[in-house]
Write a structure and sequence with these properties.
This protein is α/β, with parallel strands linked by helices and 344 residues long. It has helices at residues 14-28, 46-54, 56-69, 79-87, 102-105, 109-112, 135-145, 156-165, 182-186, 208-221, 246-254, 264-272, 287-295, 307-312, 317-338, and strands spanning 3-6, 33-35, 91-94, 120-123, 152-153, 171-172, 198-203, 224-229, 256-261, 277-279.
């Protein structure tokens, strides 16, 4: 039996790699499951080459993480070969992450929809991003996923849109990072010390107000900032994290006093490690953030000119963990059904 995951594991993005690791880890508890080692975004340009050189040491840590912790398939360099490889497998799972967001998948859209794939098809916590509002793409998506054995998405609004336009049954599942318990993530971190001496700031996109509040938080808490910037707009502010791979990222959040972020996975790992956090909504991808916050009754952690209120009001993680465990069981049950097992 050969099973396969199709996702964004080669993206040099902390959330993308860690969600891929988490889903791979869970699936391999049931049956051997490979990660399709195809980098659909591997286009060449002077800009990309310079960026690759600039992030050389960080990228080596990403590549080393994949090699050490995932069952990678053989390296595949064309979409045609990717399709051939998928069709030789018994099951393929597309997800998680924004695998159904055409602004990301672009020319590889059909591959991530699993069009013309004969293998048994499933999705896990697939996200549409902005494309949930694209009527033409929704029709194309529905036509494709009619052929799936099981369908799950990450956001409630995606489920509602798909079910409204079709007779398909759609489940909402947690992002894979939230399926692993805190102690499983701890096992990746070699350094056991926790000094809580930093405030972690993680930009998924630049936000002037978030930048201002981060500086204010640094003064209020008398803590230094450690800045991660997926938007690559604050290079000189994040020189310290320039060489940080996935493990250093989760270690930084685990050791933080406070997390300020507009990133979904910055939010997810704040919850995993039970951190106080302030969330700035992403300007064009906020549905996945609000969906998770609503699920866990944490909507009051959204910044709205209420910094002092957020600082004073602490999160009661006892209630959050109860709800998270309920949702975790539902999502694990969904995965177990893919492999023909009943999750207890």
């Amino acid at each position: 039996m050969k099973n396969l995951i199709l996702t964004f594991h080669r993206a040099k993005n902390y959330g993308a790699v860690l969600q891929a690791y988490a889903l791979s880890t869970i699936c391999n508890q049931y049956q051997y499951t490979e990660m399709l080692d195809y980098d659909f975004s591997n286009t060449k340009s002077i800009k990309k080459l310079l960026k690759k050189l600039f992030y050389f040491f960080r990228n080596k840590k990403f590549d080393g993480f994949l090699k050490k912790y995932m069952n990678l398939s053989k390296k595949i360099n064309t979409e045609e070969k990717a399709r051939e490889y998928i069709n030789k497998c018994d099951k393929v799972i597309v997800g998680s992450d924004q695998v159904w967001n055409t602004k990301i998948t672009r020319d590889s859209k059909d591959l991530f929809l699993l069009k013309n794939i004969l293998t048994e098809k499933y999705s896990y916590a697939a996200s549409l991003g902005d494309d949930c509002m694209n009527e033409l793409f929704l029709d194309e998506l529905i036509d494709s996923i009619k052929k799936y054995k099981m369908i799950s998405v990450r956001e409630q609004n995606s489920k509602e849109l798909i079910e409204k336009k079709s007779k398909l049954k759609v489940s909402v599942c947690l992002d894979p990072t939230l399926l692993l318990q805190e102690d499983k993530w701890q096992q990746l971190i070699k350094n056991e010390s926790r000094n809580l001496e930093k405030i972690v700031v993680y930009f998924a996109e630049q936000n002037d107000e978030m930048n201002k509040i981060s500086k204010l938080a640094s003064k209020v808490y008398n803590k230094k900032l450690i800045v991660f910037d997926a938007s690559n707009k604050t290079i000189f502010k994040k020189l310290k994290t320039l060489y940080y791979g996935p493990i250093e990222f989760i270690e930084s959040i685990r050791n933080s006093k406070l997390v300020i972020t507009n990133s979904f996975h910055g939010l997810a790992f704040s919850i995993i490690f039970k951190k106080q956090f302030i969330l700035f909504l992403n300007s064009n991808r906020s549905s996945r953030q609000t969906s998770l916050l609503k699920m866990l009754n944490l909507e009051d952690r959204i910044y709205s000119n209420n910094f002092q209120e957020l600082v004073n009001k602490k999160i009661d993680y006892s209630e959050v963990q109860k709800k998270l465990e309920e949702e975790r069981k539902k999502s694990l049950s969904y995965i177990s059904r893919i492999f023909g097992d009943d999750y207890e």
